[in-house]
Amino acid sequence: MIDQSNKDAGTIAALMTRFKDVRLPKTQRLLEKVNAGRKLGDDDIEFLKRVYNDSRNLHTLIERNPEYLTLITKYLDLYTEIISKATDLER
Questions:
Q1: Nearest to 64 by CA among 1, 11, 17
Q2: C-alpha dihedral (69, 84, 41, 15), degrees to nearest 10
């Protein structure tokens, strides 16, 4: 039987790969987009919704592995910056 720490390690490895290969590059492109004054498209908004929904499911994992809290917090700060700037562009 796999213990919780081994299960967490596998989950974290998969999440980190997705973060490095997909989420962070896409988030950086979205930040560049709103910094250039361009509005987000429907696909961009769907991506941000997925990130938000996924982040809501990380609480228990982060409680068990608090060493990742700073990384998650920085990423969510970036996410919040994009949302704030995108909202300003819609006004």
A1: 11
A2: 0
Angle ∠(58,63,65) on CA atoms, nearest 5: 90
CA 62 from centroid of its chain's CA atoms: 14
Classify the C-alpha dihedral 43-87-17-66 as positive or negative.
negative
In the block, residue with structure tokens 């970036």: 78
Q: Which two tokens stand for residue 4?
A: 């919780």
Contact 72, 55 (CB under 8 A): yes
pLDDT at 91: 87
CB atoms within 10 A of CB 19: 17
At 16-50, the pLDDT tens digits run 999 999 999 999 999 999 999 999 999 999 999 99
| Domain boundaries defined on the chain | 27-90
